[in-house]
Amino acid sequence: MIEIERKFLVEGEENIARIRSGSPVRITQWYLNRDKHRVVRVRIKGEKAYLTIKGKNNGIKRAEFEYEIPYDDALAMLPLAEGTVIEKTRWILNYACHRWEIDEFHGAHAGLVLAEVEMQSEDEEVELPPFIGKEVSDDPAYFNSNLAI
Question: Which of 44, 71, 81, 120 lies at a C-alpha separation of 20 to 30 Å from 51?
Answer without folding.
Answer: 120
